[in-house]
Amino acid sequence: MTGTVYKSTGSWYVVKTEEGETYNCRIKGKFRIKGIKSTNPIAVGDRVDFDADTSADEVSGVIHHIHDRKNYIIRKSVNLSKQTHIIASNIDIAFLLVTINNPVTTTSFIDRFLVAAEAYGIETVLVFNKIDTLDETALEEQLYLQAVYSDIGYQCLRVSAREGKGITELKELMKGRVSMFSGHSGVGKSTLVNAIEPELNLKTAEISEQHQQGQHTTTFAEMYDLSFGAKIIDTPGIRGFGMVDMEPEEIGDYFPEFFALKEHCKFNNCLHKEEPKCAVKEALEKDEIAWSRYQSYLQILEGDDETYRNDIYGNEK
Fold this sequence. Notes:
Helices cover 25% and strands 23% of the residues. By secondary structure, the protein is α/β, with parallel strands linked by helices. The strands form three sheets. A six-stranded mixed beta sheet has the order 10-9-8-11-13-12, sandwiched between helices. A five-stranded mixed barrel has the order 1-2-3-5-4. A two-stranded antiparallel ribbon has the order 6-7. Helix 1 packs across helix 8. The chain is globular. 37% of the residues are buried. The C terminus is likely disordered.
């Protein structure tokens, strides 16, 4: 039998067939010794083949094959730096929820997510959430960030899940596609999903006053079928986003505004650091490229993952 993984709890997987039947499945041990350097060999969104196991009182399944993935989004496991964690696979569009405060979403976090999405060929839309809570200073910052990313070519939405602003536009982008919502804990993912589809009634939580960061309300990634012909993968809040398996010379290719200038650099393998006649650095000096983007690029290039993960609520902007 063939189906799509809708939920992963680490040891059991909920698989849904084309006919709409769901099975609790486990995996054959061999997946763990195939050299997959991942804490989760199977991810939500995977297409899998499984055999129904009718020997027990309740019918379950055993997954024996994973179909090739169209794409996936991945991050380093925070506690196991040599392993990776696949957040979700076979995604048509990713929505990265960004909040200016309560909690702060740093530009370095945004850029790391966008680089990972570019590397795996996933269209990403930035969703500036909680716009109803912004004072004048925060509003200026939000509009500035929106201008930075719009100029690069990323679609940006301004949304208030609590007031229902921007929900119609968001749903239009989701129709007929598998969407993934992501962002830090506390940016309002579950509240936004509830605004889009109230019947789901996902659990939400308030921001921790002490640390101004979210409480984890989503423990595992899970896919939901929505009433307007869309599917959504709700993911746990991501605190750190270490980059995985990128060669130094290719990192700049995942910054679209850098890639557009690359052919004008003197050297083909220009890393946009110390090299003479670098088109990226010349554009930077003319304020044609945002300094925050260049700073993010250097952090990724230098492999500054540990500092990043340990101090994401520091002053990185």
